[in-house]
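In response to the reviewer comment on reproducibility (Comment 2.3), we provide here a single inverse folding case reported in full, input and output, so that an independent group could reproduce the run without further information from us. The structure tokens appear first.
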């Protein structure tokens, strides 16, 4: 594998990218310090809470990446075609040439078409863009639990994300404040995505951005009536269908719409179960004379997935990549639960497996997520030099996050495990309003964003029987369950921004502006009966706490300079300060001010009240300087960036040795230096070879971190979960109607503990895709056949990570093994 990667390297030019921090915290397990996103409140969180003397994992955030854009967005003309706003941060979207600009990288529809239909846009983004790292446990990258995205050290819960101007919040699992891209839009309907890897983008409606932003744009309905359909088949009984119908222009006013549907179904590549995704997108465009247009959007998704079980590195090495949940062997699941609760190792497990790791096994784990997103957008020319962009949106999300908990008891049957299911209910309502005002050499851009987010989460217990478990996919009604606890939150967010794009010269701009952000969250535990259920269900301390917190900053500045010269050259720099509002999450989770606090002898409420007086929201100062060269034969870019990460927050065990409890504290600073270098050469018509290299040195500055009744030092240790080096090579060749794409990625080892005593091993992975366009066939205007292979050389490596990182040692089961080699074929037609 290394030889193949080096061979491609020899064909191409080089590149450089950077940095990292850890993902969302999965339950309370092991001696953990920080997790980078809300932890699930299902069985995954049970292990550490149950065991005496184990600490609660804590959350920590790392720098988030931005893209090679310096701060503005692409606007749409009355005709619906995109064009450049007068700003250094715009991207050109046209039928002719599409290029990156400033500190922003763009991935076009043409690039996305080189990958297997339905592949997650986040996965495509990482395979083609310096500084981005994406890993999962399934070939399509659609498993929301295991997916891990980092952009220059910041994870998916720390990025600003929008789609067609609609705020999309965090992209991680349990994203109570947003919606993941795989559930908001069918991949074929996305026309482009831009990744802002600079220092900031003040116009992005986001309360969690610490460094950068991703903007997704979906295409408008076609002017001519028609349709598209594609069918994909693949390994492990993969079956994916996509269909879209465009109405064409219906009347003299220009009304047009499209409706589309996609279904993806595939068996798990190991263990029992499958993963199914249903998606529907509807978009209507109504021009309003010559003054603008109104766009209506409705999106629906239903993700119904059996999960893969997360592992420790020790389990992966001793038991192999196929290790997963015990279903359908119910007898073995009960046996493992007995040993988990009573100590010892079940027969048949190899030497070296610990009792802690026996407790990481469970019968099964599933998730069902349903999302409904509606939006009404208006784009109007109010005057010759004033344009207005308005978006009103509503998002409803609900589902079931289920898992067998081997540390509970089903009281009627006496079985030493029970089905634990969280029932999230999210409702987001909001609006954005922005104006662009052109005044000779200046373009003033200003706007505001308001959102109300209501979140409810009851945790319910369902009995497992003596001979069979509770059904994993049905009968999750309140009347059939015993409610353990319930959490409720209400969040109000307000953001205002203003910036001036000053055209100093014809090809030189200076942008200066700021945003003001305020977010207030009220809520916490609304119901808890842990004590009442302790004898019958074996419930343990669940950390109830409630109260309100506000994160606010009136002035978060952003400055950018961009100069194009000599016809092919560009220089730019970005400077910005960013603030991230507080996460909120369930009491049984971690990584937020309300979750996983206290202990049975030191109440969560008292810890919350004490922390409220001292907590301050996280901030970053980001600096980027870069150079880009573009010509017909060669394109190259080089960026250097520096981040000061201030007031890093983490859940951590605190207090004296005789009264240790979990708290959420400021644990110090982090600094990050990194660079990305990219080169693309086009030696002959149709052939492009791209190489990029990324380097990042993100280190903690904490020399006396309170932990477990004492202090530890992690000063100078590298950020967890993000590689220090990445190398990517892409070779694309188009000849007449045939197209070929090969990409390979090297990811260096990733620290998996804060003391850096354990690492996730480095790996190479490669993908191969080929297609042939047959042109007109019978009644189809275009018929295309595509073939693809993922993980071409069948590498066995750790992909996604979800959960708290340990201070030291290999104790947390938070690693997901990547999918093996898989084959796919797609036939697509356009009418």
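Designed residues, in position order:
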């Amino acid at each position: 594998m290394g030889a193949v990667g080096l061979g491609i390297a020899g064909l191409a030019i080089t590149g450089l990218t950077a940095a990292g921090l850890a993902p969302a915290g999965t339950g309370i397990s092991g001696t953990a310090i920080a997790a980078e996103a809300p932890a699930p409140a299902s069985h995954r969180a049970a292990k550490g809470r149950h065991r005496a003397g184990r600490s609660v994992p804590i959350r920590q955030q790392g720098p988030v990446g931005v893209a090679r854009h310096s701060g503005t967005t692409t606007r749409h003309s009355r005709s619906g075609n995109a064009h450049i706003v007068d700003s250094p941060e715009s991207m050109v979207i046209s039928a002719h040439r599409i290029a990156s600009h400033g500190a922003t990288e763009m991935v076009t529809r043409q690039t996305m078409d080189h990958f297997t239909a339905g592949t997650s846009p986040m996965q495509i983004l990482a395979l083609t863009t310096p500084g981005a790292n994406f890993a999962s446990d399934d070939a399509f990258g659609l498993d929301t639990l295991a997916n891990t995205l980092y952009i220059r050290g910041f994870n998916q819960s720390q990025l600003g994300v929008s789609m067609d101007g609609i705020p999309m919040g965090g992209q991680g699992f349990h994203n109570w404040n947003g919606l993941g891209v795989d559930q908001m839009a069918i991949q074929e309907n996305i026309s482009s995505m831009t990744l802002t890897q600079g220092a900031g983008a003040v116009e992005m409606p986001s309360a969690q951005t610490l460094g950068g932003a991703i903007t997704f744009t979906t295409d408008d309905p076609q002017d001519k009536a028609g349709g598209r359909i594609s069918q994909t088949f693949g390994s492990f009984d993969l079956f994916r269908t996509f269909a879209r119908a465009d109405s064409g222009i219906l009347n003299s006013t220009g009304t047009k719409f499209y409706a589309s549907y996609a279904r993806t179904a595939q068996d798990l590549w190991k263990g029992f179960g499958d993963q199914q995704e249903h998606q529907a997108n509807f978009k209507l465009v109504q021009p309003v004379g010559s003054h603008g247009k109104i766009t209506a959007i409705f999106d629906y998704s239903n993700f119904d997935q059996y999960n893969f079980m997360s592992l420790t590195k020790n389990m992966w090495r001793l038991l192999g990549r196929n290790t997963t949940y015990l279903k359908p062997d119910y007898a073995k699941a009960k046996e493992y639960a007995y040993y988990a609760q009573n100590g010892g190792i079940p027969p048949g497990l190899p030497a070296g497996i610990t009792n802690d790791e026996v407790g990481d096994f469970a019968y099964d784990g599933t998730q069902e997520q349903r999302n409904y997103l509606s939006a009404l957008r208006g784009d109007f020319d109010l005057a010759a030099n004033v344009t207005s962009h308005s978006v009103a949106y509503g998002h409803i999300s609900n589902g079931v996050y289920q898992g067998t908990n081997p540390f509970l008891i089903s009281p009627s049957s006496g079985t030493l495990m029970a089905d634990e299911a969280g029932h999230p209910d999210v409702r987001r309502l909001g609006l954005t309003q922005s104006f662009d005002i052109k005044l000779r050499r200046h373009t003033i851009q200003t706007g505001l964003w308001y959102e109300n987010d209501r979140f409810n989460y009851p945790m319910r217990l369902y009995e497992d029987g003596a001979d069979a478990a509770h059904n994993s996919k049905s009968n999750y009604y309140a009347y059939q369950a015993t409610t353990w606890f319930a959490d409720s939150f209400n969040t109000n967010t307000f953001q205002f921004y203003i910036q001036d794009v000053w055209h100093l010269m014809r090809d030189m701009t200076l942008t200066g502006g700021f945003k003001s952000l305020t977010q207030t969250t009220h809520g916490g535990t609304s119901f808890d009966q842990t004590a009442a259920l302790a004898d019958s269900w074996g419930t343990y301390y669940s950390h109830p706490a409630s109260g309100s917190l506000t994160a606010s900053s009136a002035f978060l500045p952003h400055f950018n300079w961009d100069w194009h010269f000599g016809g092919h050259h560009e220089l730019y720099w970005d400077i910005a300060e960013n603030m991230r509002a507080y996460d909120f999450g369930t009491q049984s989770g971690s990584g937020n001010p309300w979750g996983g606090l206290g202990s049975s002898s030191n109440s969560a409420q008292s810890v919350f009240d004490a922390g409220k007086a001292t907590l301050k929201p996280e901030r970053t100062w980001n600096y980027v300087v870069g150079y880009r060269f573009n010509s017909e034969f060669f394109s190259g870019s080089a960026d250097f960036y520096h981040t000061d990460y201030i007031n890093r927050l983490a859940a951590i065990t605190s207090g004296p040795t005789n009264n240790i409890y979990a708290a959420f504290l400021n644990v110090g600073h982090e600094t990050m230096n990194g660079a990305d270098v990219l080169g693309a050469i086009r030696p002959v018509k149709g052939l492009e070879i791209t190489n990029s290299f990324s380097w990042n040195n993100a280190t903690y500055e904490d020399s006396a971190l309170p932990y477990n009744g004492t202090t530890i030092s992690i000063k100078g240790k590298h950020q967890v979960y993000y590689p220090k080096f990445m190398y990517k090579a892409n070779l694309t060749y188009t000849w007449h109607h045939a197209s070929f794409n090969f990409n390979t990625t090297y990811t260096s080892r990733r620290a998996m503990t804060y003391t850096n005593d354990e690492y996730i091993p480095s790996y190479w992975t490669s993908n191969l895709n080929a297609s042939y366009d047959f042109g007109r066939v019978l009644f189809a205007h275009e018929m295309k056949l595509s073939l693809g292979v993922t993980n071409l050389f069948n590498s066995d490596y750790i992909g996604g990570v979800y959960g708290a990182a340990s201070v030291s040692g290999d104790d947390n089961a938070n690693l997901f093994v990547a999918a093996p080699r898989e084959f796919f074929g797609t036939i697509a037609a356009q009418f």
